[in-house]
Amino acid sequence: MSIAIAKAEITVSLVSGDPELLRLCREALGEISGHSWSLNATNSDSVELDSDIMLWDYERGMSLRVPTRSNLSKHLFLVRREDIAEFQAAIAPLEANILLKPVTRTTLQSCLELAVSAHQDRTSPASESRAERDDILQCLIQTNLRLQEADQDRTTFLARAVHDFRAPLTALSGYCGLLLEEPLGTLTEPQKEVLRRMLHSARRLSRMAAAMFELSVGRQVKVAPNLQPNDLRECLDQALHETMPFADEKRISINVDMAPCGYQLYFEAGQIEQALINILDNACKFTPRNGSIEIRGYSYFWERRVCRLSVSASAERRQEHCNEPNSYRLDIQDSGTPIPVEHLERIFEEYTSFDGCRDRSGGGLGLAITHMIMAQHKGRVWAENTSFGPMFSLVFPFFGKLQNQ
Fold first, then answer.
1. 276-309, pLDDT tens digit by residue?
2. Residue 192: domain span
3. Is residue 119 domain-shared with residue 67, that is, in the same domain?
4. pLDDT of 257-275, one tens digit each?
5. Smallest Cα–Cα separation from 293: which of 254, 257, 331?
6. Which of 96-105, 125-134, 174-183, 330-339 has the highest mean pLDDT?
7. pTM of the entire structure?
8. DSSP track, 216-229
9. 129 three-state secondary structure
10. Residue 123 sits in the same domain as residue 178
11. Greatest CA span in the chain, whole angstroms?
């Protein structure tokens, strides 16, 4: 399969059968500005080594065509931590550029940028510093490997810690619900209101704990969502119910206008509800008192093959002779302050935030979880600034339509 974005100046070959990794490569390459490129996915049996950059998805027992020392910098190998010893034995005596699997988009993008820089050095007439640059690249890749190992250890610790406090949070929610049913005695209305608020907060913490756990282990274990026919409006209504106390406290008005969907949507209701709650929580947090939130849903044509969504994510891209909707789009706009343009993509990254009162990432949890959920559902989420205020858009594919395009 070949995906050409523009006139090919830099060719990239991905030796893998993983469609998720192919999608990740598209996104990472699309973030490298100033270059046009072509991406080709192939298997190890038919791979050619003539591409400018080679990206290998290493598996145990994989047949490797060992590169020479002179062109080693153009080869990047994705290897599981437990397979590093076997891989290094297979590639010896060379020291290859290793990325730990599962790789994040940020890590992959950074290493591809270094590989592009090395490629430019190899093809530049002024080659005096080429060997020095290759050594620097090798040093950076090895340092990055150590950092990835430390990050995996941190993620494992976090997953265990979050798992441990999910149980008491569930118990707290249960006790609050039990007291509200009044089997232990009659409660006054103020007491019920306090318990309802406690129950609401406990449930939010429980959802966040569950989502943090999934975010922590999601890169280690690929879990496919349980796709079932569901009603997106029902999920939105439930998400609005969960976030309404926050909106009422700030006197935020919420208007919903959802056009009928021409096709049945398939998704895991609990996960999509969580994604919508995260977006609505974020909107309520940054909408000023007495502000407003506008929600609009409509059928939409989504061109998945265009990689560089950060360039024109808000534009409706259409293929020639193909203009029928293949997805349903949900726009959630709030009257808050604009998001700095340089952070429109970064707010969806895990555990990242930026300084200032307009930090929409919330520490990189809620929006990162939403991005993960939408990716698992083969959908899309992005942010942009409008004249009304920031807008978060979610695209839910019509699976039957996408398979035919």
1. 988 998 898 889 999 999 999 998 887 665 443 3
2. 155-218
3. yes
4. 999 887 888 888 888 988 9
5. 254
6. 330-339
7. 0.60
8. HHHTTS------EE
9. coil
10. no
11. 85
